[in-house]
Amino acid sequence: MAKKSGTRTPETLEEMIEVKAEMFGNKITAGVVHWFRNDTFFDGFRNTPARIIITVLSFVVLYGGLMLCWSSQNYLLHYICALFVVLIMQAISVRFVFQIEGREILDEYQEKRRDRAYRRAYQNIRSIIGACVVAWVAYTYIRETYDVELGGWELLTYNRSATVAVFVVALISLQKYLSYGIKGEPFLSREEVNQMRNS
């Protein structure tokens, strides 16, 4: 029995669905690329003065929050929220270069700067770990040699342990942004942005 010419076989229907899905995916990718390269809504986060302010704010929140939570143990949730806000500000200020994997989105300059930031962050974390080990050895040596009461593990309560854990996670998370540098994008007026889009 011959098939009717108007009916579709399942293979053809599957192929059509695949083609449509691929076209939809390409359209979304093109939209993301266009938004990523031409977004001006967050320009206030991306210029050099903004990068400087966000970097200083990151240090203040990271270390100031640690000292505040260490002395008064009621601010841990505030510390976590402040760190989260700072991380979002950092991600916006560098156009999410650390969250984007697609090479068609980042240009060559952004890729090189991101890779250099990863290398610097790794070196910084290694240096911080080395400094902590040296400080711990010196602390232990002073306590045991000179019999000085500096306090020990009894100072580390549950809240302080949680504070230290949050600090370590935030320090590692922020390192790549801090290593990215403070040089931001040049500030462009709306007329200059429109000229760039139209060219």
Estimated helix fraction: over 70%
C-alpha end-to-end distance: 60 Å
Radius of gyration: 26 Å
What best-fitting shape do the alpha-carbon axes yield? elongated
Give the low-pLDDT segments: none
Strand content: under 5%
Overall SS class: mainly alpha
Write the layout of secondary structure elements.
Layout: H1 10-38, H2 48-71, H3 76-93, H4 108-146, H5 158-180, H6 190-198
Helix pairs in contact: 2-3, 2-5, 3-5, 4-5
What does this structure look like?
With 199 residues, the protein is mainly alpha-helical. 71% of the residues lie in helices and 0% in strands. The protein is built from six helices and no strands. The protein has helices at 10-38, 48-71, 76-93, 108-146, 158-180, 190-198. Helix 2 (48-71) packs antiparallel against helix 5 (158-180) and helix 3 (76-93) packs parallel to helix 5 (158-180). It is elongated, with a radius of gyration of 26 Å. The mean pLDDT is 79.
Keywords:
199 residues, single chain, elongated, mainly alpha, 6 helices
Give a brief outline of the structure.
The protein has 199 residues and is mostly helical. It is built from 6 helices and no strands. It starts with 9 loop residues before the first helix and ends with a helix.
